[in-house]
Design goal:
There is one protein chain. This protein is of the alpha/beta class. It has one domain (13-132): Rossmann fold. The chain contains five helices and five strands. It has helices at residues 25-38, 48-57, 74-84, 100-106, 119-132, and strands at 17-21, 41-45, 62-66, 90-94, 111-114. A five-stranded parallel β-sheet has the order 2-1-3-4-5, sandwiched between helices. Strand 1 (17-21), helix 1 and strand 2 form a beta-alpha-beta unit.
């Protein structure tokens, strides 16, 4: 299968943009490199305040948000993203608490992935959410 196009819409992955907000430098860098190599356009932010600005200013096909962030947490970002872009899928990546999925799902995340995670798990989730969009 051609990883550069979506077989349902014919849209190339490079037409899809992803916003990643995580305060961990290494996770941000790995996600940016991996997702760009996969063919997505990726914007990264290191804290919730910068992420909030990006959510308000830009149009993204998927948000990937950490729950614990400086300045504005991921839950706050989810709430704002849902108001501004209600149809945009949200993936939460988190090591927060014993049941991070409960927190994120209560706040309307479409997918929760607990840290540490495999990049393939994230890639599969992104592909599924884009198909459903």
């Amino acid at each position: 299968m051609d990883h550069g196009s979506n077989f349902l819409t014919g849209q190339t992955m490079s037409n899809y943009s992803i916003l990643v907000v995580d305060d961990d430098d290494s996770i941000r860098e790995v996600l940016k490199d991996y997702l760009e190599q996969t063919g997505y356009q990726v914007t990264v932010c290191a804290d919730g305040l910068k992420g909030l600005d990006r959510v308000k200013q830009g149009s993204y096909d998927i948000f990937i948000l950490d729950i614990r962030l400086p300045h504005v947490n991921g839950i706050g970002l989810i709430k704002v993203a849902r108001k501004i872009n209600p149809e945009t899928p949200i993936i939460c990546i988190t090591a927060y608490g014993d049941h991070p999925e409960k927190v994120a799902v209560e706040e309307s995340a479409d997918l929760v992935i607990a840290k540490p995670f495999q990049l393939e798990e994230l890639s599969t989730g992104i592909a599924r959410l884009l198909k459903e969009k």
